[in-house]
Amino acid sequence: MTNSFAVAVAVARKDLRAEWRTRELVPALAQFVILALVIANFGFQIDSRNAPSIAPGILWLALVFAGLVAFGRAFAAEREQASLEALLMTPASPVAIFAGKATAATLLLIGCEAVLLPALTLFFGTPLSVQVIAAVLLATIGMAALGCLFAAMVARVRARELLLPLLTLPLWIPFIVAGGQAVQVAMGASGSYDQAMALLVDFDILFVVLTSLAARFVLDD
Amino acid sequence: MTKYEKAAAGGVALMLAAAAAIFLFAPTDALQGPVQRIFYLHVSAAIAAYGCFAVVLVGGIIYLRNGSLVADRFARAGALVGLVFTTVTLVMGMLWAKPIWGTYWTWDARLTSTLVLWIIYAGYLLVRRLAEPGRQAARFAAVVGIFGFIDVPVVHFSVTWWRTVHPGPIIVNDALPPEMLATFFFTMACTLVLAAVMIGIRYRIETLADVAVQAVAEPAHMVAARDPEPVN
Question: Which of A33, A46, B9, B42 is packed most tightly, with the most Cβ within 10 A?
Answer without folding.
Answer: A33
